[in-house]
């Protein structure tokens, strides 16, 4: 049975005991645009956070934010494991990065050997992967962690860099109820709403499904605005109608793809992301893979993936995903 838990941050970092010395040490692997702010918030909340990233700039930024920097991912995990309680969080770009970090390398590929995170962890460590990766990669990750004698949660996030910085991410969590309970104080620091979606793997499933809805709805909203423009309807008039009628949705009322109606939307800043088109294309690619694996009738999801893949190939990759409206305008037939 799915358990839903909405959690609002009140006292970040405070656990049931209320004693900072009892907080788990956290090894945080991946300190990029999302992982960096999350690690910062955890450190600011009183957690000991030991981080690692391959990008020197990310390491320096995290160090300045109070994160201890390790010489490798394995060293971060080993340092955290020296505490009475520890947690390993990964936030990496793709499944191959998560798998590679967990397993490490023996040097047979001609590169220097790299110790894996799994080998460095204390027995029965809780691993929480916040990466958005392919469903099949998530299965591999869970199998590797379980085979090494550890526990696993998948906890992909939604809310973009703004949510990561503010500590207001939506967290979609899959795993055993007792492991979710153990991780909840940490989740409450980085997220505003935490939803336990069921067993391990269900968090990622929820993220893939949610972003398929988001991508398809942003395309539909953008097409409606372009159609309204062709019909002589002002953007403000269409917004006033749709936002108070059955067409209302997050893509319209929060991330509106035209400037004016929602002053905080990226359309008012020349589509500076937010949530970049390249990331939407990536997530819809994951949805496409899941559609093909499960065999569902998913024509809208597949078409959305095709449209965003084309958008991300050009300048759209670095723009907010709501910038898809520019592609729709460009490909529309000029008025007679």
Automatic annotation (TrEMBL):
Boundaries of every 3-hydroxyisobutyrate dehydrogenase-like NAD-binding domain copy: 201-327
Keywords per UniProt: Branched-chain amino acid catabolism, NAD, Oxidoreductase
InterPro entries per UniProt: 3-OH-isobutyrate_DH-rel_CS, 6-PGluconate_DH-like_C_sf, 6PGD_dom2, 6PGDH_NADP-bd, HIBADH, HIBADH-like_NADP-bd, HIBADH-related, NAD(P)-bd_dom_sf
SUPFAM superfamilies according to UniProt: 6-phosphogluconate dehydrogenase C-terminal domain-like, NAD(P)-binding Rossmann-fold domains
EC number per UniProt: 1.1.1.31
Residue ranges constituting the 6-phosphogluconate dehydrogenase NADP-binding domain according to the UniProt record: 26-198
Highest taxon of the lineage: Bacteria
Catalytic reaction list: 3-hydroxy-2-methylpropanoate + NAD(+) = 2-methyl-3-oxopropanoate + NADH + H(+)
Protein's pathway: Amino-acid degradation; L-valine degradation
Record-stated family: Belongs to the HIBADH-related family.
Protein name: 3-hydroxyisobutyrate dehydrogenase
Organism this protein belongs to: Citricoccus zhacaiensis
Phylogenetic classification of the source organism: Bacteria, Bacillati, Actinomycetota, Actinomycetes, Micrococcales
